[in-house]
Write a structure and sequence with these properties.
The strands form three sheets. A three-stranded mixed beta sheet has the order 2-1-3. A three-stranded antiparallel beta sheet has the order 6-8-7. It has a two-stranded parallel ribbon with strand order 4-5. A hairpin with a 2-residue loop joins strand 1 and strand 2. The longest helix is centred in the middle third of the chain and has 31 residues. Helix content is 48%, strand content 19%. The protein is elongated.
Length: 193
Amino acid sequence: AHSSIMSATNTIKFNVGGKHFEVSRDLMEMHSETMLGKLVSEAWQQDPEESVFIDRDGDIFAHILNYLRYGSIELPHTIPKSSFERDLDFYGLGSKEGDIKEKSILAILDSLEDAKMKHDMILFAIEVHHQYAFRSYKNFGITVYEKDLREKLGHSETFFSCEEKKLFVNYLDVYFGLEAQCYINGSFQVTRK
């Protein structure tokens, strides 16, 4: 009778450090040889409807489950690789070289730089749209200079990078219906599309 109850229950409930998880029984059966798999086997789990309590870090456990699902993981910067590996050992799970990656502080800084660039380029596009609305005579267009835009918005760099130019021109097009031609002297000729 106990076996039929276990097979009728398609999920397993965990309470790990106060965080609750519900996991497919199939996932645990794929890892039945591990401590975690044995913990929820018919031999150990008396009542399949009850949560299995594990006195470990629930935040790390969420990543352990994803590791089991996908076979690899990129850890957020909030979870040290050493802590993750310690819990892998606790649960009887091994890892292969390259399966666990950490999001490096350099990757985080790069994403912040990228966000800052996007922020700046949309501000520049808004400024040019305002200038176009007030200075353009019968839609003949206006000329704006990178240096003036940067000074107006408090930036010290003089010229846009190629990536910044592409983003700026794209924002003008997509959000304001303006077309901008870039010139080597650091100016843009802006017209209505």
